[in-house]
Design a protein that fits this description.
Length: about 450
Amino acid sequence: MRLRLQRRLRVLGPLLVLGCPLSAAAFCGFFVSGADAKLVNNASQVVLMRSGNRTVMTMSNNYKGPPEDFAMVVPVPVVLQKENVKVLPHDVFDHIDQLSAPRLVEYWEQDPCAPRYDEEKMARGGAVPVPRKAASAPAEEYGVKILAKFVVGEYQILILSAEESSGLEKWLRAHKYKIPSGAAEALAPYVRDQMKFFVAKVDIAKVQRDAQGLLVLSPLRFHFESNELRLPIRLGLLNAEAKQDLIVYVLSPSSRFEVANYRTVPIPTNLEVADEVRASFPGFYAELFDATISHYGGRAVVTEYAWDTGSCDPCPTPPLRPDELSTLGADVMGQREMARYGRFVLTRLHTRYDRQALSDDLIFRAAPALEGGREGVAETRTQPGGMNNFQARYIIRHYWSGPIKCQNPQWGIWGGPPGGAEPRPMAAQGLANAPRGKLALGK
């Protein structure tokens, strides 16, 4: 284990040129407002549930900008109707984030002279799966058509089509929205592809604020039919303060997913770490993640988790419940029975990018099963037709330091602390704002 750690750190060591802190996270569209102040997307998450050609997209964003009505503009492949769009509870992302987050586990080497009753189980660390538990000119004047109009929660929604990106920009300006610089150029590829535009105007009086005073928008879920699974990330750069941090959760009844048009790599996992990492685990992981992205010149997407939703090992939190899977899209997928038995595969993909790193939208495709980050699994590997059992897992090991009272000690038997229960794994969350530069990764 220690030799493997040294080899991996020799690869990563020269790459530890850490970037600036993450102050913005990716968004699948951009914000427009009637005010002159800059609008910034501070944090967002996206869940994509995919079965056949049907996609259910759920996105959650908070917003930093003037306290006035504003709107989100998101390209979509089809005309959405009111029955395709839902507002979800604010905490819908909490569980899926914690379940799939990189985890820190802690094991104690057992007395090498103690009697062995179930050595195989102890060698695995004793872990078991948790039980499932408009007043302006007409739209047509700008080559813009309003295809649908409805209200959902705090959102007043228009579905638009446009003949030219400049016409859409002029229409937004005519409706008193301040457009980020470069919007027409960024919109042009979507107009050429004849995509529609989901414009969700926010009624500021209905929006909640978090502890820091930022507006927290209700998660929006919408579903559509499309041959391709694509995430329009380019427009999010219009509201970015710095490099953007993007985490995408893909739920599929049959396979894990990867990005087709950029390199997708597994995060280095099963690394032993120093005891001090416990006090700053999110910061440690953020630096490891940055080093991994830098190794590929910033043009990569990192797989952090690929696992059946009905189990986990070790589990920082119980698996996703059937009602949570239904909330995220199983109710419109015809997959209620699969949700009941937790038969979806959850893939967590993570990247950090700017215009130079990722200049194209992300296109996703099914990928072979992935295994790694488990006790007793030496290396990360793909296994076509196999089970997905991959996680970002980091280990604090307490080696036996007591007396040796037998002639043939058996080393390397791991379990919980002497006389106590094994602690629950620690999940690294809030990675977009995790402190950087405070740990020497090579140590």
